[in-house]
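Dear support,

I submitted the protein below through the web form. The confirmation email said the job was done, but the results page showed an empty box. After a refresh the structure appeared. I'm attaching both so you can tell me whether what I see now is the final result or a partial one.
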Amino acid sequence: MTNESLIAALRKQSGVVRISSLAAGFTLIEMILAIGVAAIVLVAVNAVLFTALHLREVTSNVVDAATPLDATVTFIRRDLQCCVTPTNGTSKILSGNFKAGTINSPGVTEPVAVEMCTATGALNATTPWGDIQRVTYELKNSTDASGRRDLYRSITRNLLAISATPDVQDQLMLSGVESVKFSCYDGSRWQDTWDTSDANTINTNLPLAVKVEIQMAGDKKNITEPIQLIVPIDAVARTNMVLSGT
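What the results page shows now:
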């Protein structure tokens, strides 16, 4: 093979390689289109991810705000349903007073909205108390200097101790409460006050139902309706004493 034919063959072969290498690559327009499509996909994914994270945060805040309220409603319902029969000014065993309104309870600095004796005390081997305890619900000023008021549940376990200052344990139930009100149903109407401690009072027994209204604090633009709870009380003090005769 002569030199001219060898050079022609090499040129032909190098041209084929150059053409095949160009056919296997991407042009600049294709790269720009691919980058643009990828950018659009990333923007869409980012929008969906941001929306999901925002929804998760909102849902978490709603759940965190509703958890103390649900716990408060559960405690109030359980305490009212387990109320023991009233004393009616006597020395009955396994009984206690029930008061609603604006009451001064021993050991509690603030006026309470309700005072009851209920069988919700936890029994264990390390405490000498029974399951009957005195429970009050009242509003106290918040400790964070915000000017708000908090709903507390105060518990007295040792009911047999004769002391002017009983051992009262305060339990924070709900923060940011404007007002709390307990109304008692006597069978015909709702009454704002109830007291079974006096033997001469008209209300000598437990009410048939108790309505609880909790008004949360808020600004004037976001005033919400009060949270209402109605708890029927199925407890009647029975006696074999003759009340009337002919």
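Response: this is the final, complete result; the empty box was a page-load delay. The chain has a mean pLDDT of 80.
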